[in-house]
Design goal:
The protein is mainly α and 370 residues long. Helices cover 57% and strands 6% of the residues. It is built from 18 helices and five strands. Strand 1, helix 1 and strand 2 form a beta-alpha-beta unit. Bound molecules: adenosine-5'-triphosphate and magnesium ion. Adenosine-5'-triphosphate binds next to helix 1.
């Protein structure tokens, strides 16, 4: 019963803030590449406002405000509405219905084992204050998002791997019980280890809106400079330039691992041909932290300056941005409704799709009379 296999992408972001460099290297950059590769039949990007409400129920204004911020970030990194469907989750009622059915296919014990959710519960203080059931079950709603679009590929950062595993389990269980209906999705994570999970400017494990340790794609050059110079630590034992330095745990080098390419050396630091040479000099001693930070700022600006310019252009035309989102959401509504219809048919709860059930009921009643 499953539709013919196509190459379909679905990814999403929570509108809890502007997008940051972690999103960029973990997922956005790849999405634009895939979008322009021509290898996909369909690319869908969703602004997950319903999911954002699971831990922001008391602050709906924040979610509403950030829809436009995330949308502007998408357009400025090169998401092209001609090639990619961009939509808003709350306007897709099929996702709610699918979530409700899928919740029956997981146990609370299984949900409790999800390491990303565990860490997020801790971080948000839910362990003490009480855990909203909606937040606890958001991996199930993410399964609904992915399957509703028949996604085959989901480009995400490493923190999302447990969600994909959960989605695959639900798909397999659904198909076992109700027959082949849902498409089994696969995660696509960056090959570069630092890009899979970019740490915060403070060196904490993950750059995250909730931790306030971000460089945002729309930050001004001054803010970027302040974040790098003021917040990023290097090697606390590297006191004098001549001292040998450490690369491990040195946030500046972690960022260079994620962002710098050989052509950046040719342009801004021609003393070295590549990052390995620069690292070797730092380890030997004789390379100052100031020089490293200055280079990193230039590298980051190579990425950020064009994004800022594109954003400024879109900011002047919010009516058009609104129309893009509206049009994408309409397309997404059709796609997700079609999946819901297929699911309801497989689950034998498609009473009102046509009048077939009337004949079934009549025959049942005849049999019970005999
Ligand atoms: P929140 O704190 O509200 O959860 P977030 O910063 O974690 O926000 P999400 O919207 O949850 O961002 O994540 C969107 C996408 O970006 C996901 O695919 C996620 O894996 C990826 N991502 C987020 N942060 C990072 C990071 N620091 N490094 C790599 N990928 C990331
Ligand atoms: Mg997150």
């Amino acid at each position: 019963m499953a539709t013919e296999k196509k190459n379909i992408i679905l990814t999403a972001d929570r509108p809890t803030g502007r997008l940051h460099l972690g999103h960029y290297v973990g997922s956005l950059m790849r999405r634009v590449e895939l979008q322009n590769s021509g290898r996909f039949d369909q690319i869908n990007i969703m602004i997950a406002d319903d999911q954002a409400l699971t831990d922001n129920a008391d602050n709906p204004g924040k979610i509403r405000d950030n829809i436009i911020q995330v949308m502007l970030d998408y357009l400025s990194v090169g998401i092209d509405p001609e090639k990619t469907t961009v939509c808003v989750q709350s306007a897709l009622p099929a996702l709610h219905a699918l979530t409700f059915y899928f919740l029956n296919l997981v146990t609370t014990a299984r949900l409790s084992r999800n390491p990303t959710v565990k860490a997020e519960i801790q971080m948000r203080g839910f362990a003490d204050e009480g855990l909203p059931a909606g937040f606890f079950t958001y991996p199930v709603s993410q399964t609904a998002d992915i399957t509703a679009f028949d996604a085959t590929v989901v480009p995400v950062g490493e923190d999302q791997l447990p969600m994909l595993e959960q989605a695959r389990e639900i798909v397999e269980k659904f198909n076992r019980i109700y027959g082949e209906t849902l498409v089994l999705p696969e995660a696509m994570i960056p090959e570069n280890a630092t890009q899979r999970r970019l740490p915060g400017v403070d060196g904490r494990a993950k750059m995250s809106k909730s931790l306030g340790n971000c460089i945002y794609l729309s930050d001004s050059p001054k803010t970027v400079k302040q974040q790098v110079n003021g917040k990023m630590f290097t090697d606390p034992q590297h006191l004098r330039i001549e001292d040998p330095g450490h690369i491990e745990g040195n946030v500046v080098f972690t960022y260079l691992d994620a962002f710098c390419r050989p052509e950046h050396f040719a342009a801004y630091l021609p003393e070295y041909a590549c990052l390995d040479e620069m690292k070797a000099h730092y380890r030997r001693g004789g390379l100052g932290d100031g020089t490293c930070k200055k280079f990193l700022i230039r590298v980051l600006e190579e990425y950020l300056a064009p994004l800022r310019e594109a954003r400024a252009r879109w900011e002047k035309d919010i009516d058009t941005v609104y129309d893009i989102l509206l049009a994408g959401t309409k397309v997404a509504r059709e796609r997700t409704n079609a999946t819901l219809a297929r699911v309801q048919k497989a689950m034998r709860i498609d009473y009102f799709a046509d009048r077939a059930v009337v004949r079934e009921w009549e025959s049942l009643l005849r049999q019970t009379k005999n």
